[in-house]
Amino acid sequence: MKGIILAGGTGTRLYPVTISVSKQLLPVHDKPMIYYPLGTLMLAGIRDILVITVPRDRPLFEGLLGDGSALGLSISYAEQQRPNGLAEAFVIGREFVGDSPVALILGDNIFYGAGLAEICRDAVARQAGATVFAYHVDDPARYGVVSFNTTTGKADAIEEKPAIPKSNWAVTGLYFYDNDVLDIAASVRPSGRGELEITDVNRAYLDRGNLHVRRLGRGYAWLDTGTHESLHDAASFVRTIEYRQGVKIMCPEEIAFELGYLSADQVLARAAMLGQTDYAVYLRRRIRELADV
Q: pTM of the predicted model, to two decimals?
């Protein structure tokens, strides 16, 4: 399976901070925001990744991530000229995806919880259809909302930012699809907002009877960093967990080592490049700990 990180948009809700830099390059505590969705794809076992961003920010992402080899990955880049909707990621990325299944994650979404890797790998292993994740929220009208049949427990409707939501279950910014998504996305017409809505893609799978919705219950965190308040909350959450547990959330070098993508020497070389920062010190410590296991 291939992966796409959608890191486009203008980040207007974070102005003036994002006037000159992509939202997905802002720090969330101790690492760039894009590290978090990147780490999620890595935990799912995905190594071939396309980053979609706006033309202005592409050189900055390339400077940060390069071709991915420093993390044991293959990373390529494409441009979204303007924010035309999430489903456009599959139009832009069609050549990259080819005949593979594909995962899409939004560049400003952070996921955390025990067993996250396993549920993502279960989604990767599904041979047909789509898998999305739902999270219980207090303000569902801001999101795509999925409702469930009270008898079967299966999803029976999905709506984009409904005025009167049928449930409190919001669809998160992490999606797994079979290759049919390329044609489905290409057939989607712009909504009243002028965007190619990912909800229309998910509804197409629902109409086929092939949309699998996994509810993320207690023990999972889903953080959207689109406002100054939510960005602060996310940074505070990450700092609290990392301080209490002594391990980092979505550290790509650590994930790459644990998955066998990088050797201990390669991670240590990465740490040397990062100097005497706390992040570099952490990498050195984790290699000592993990190499002894």
A: 0.95
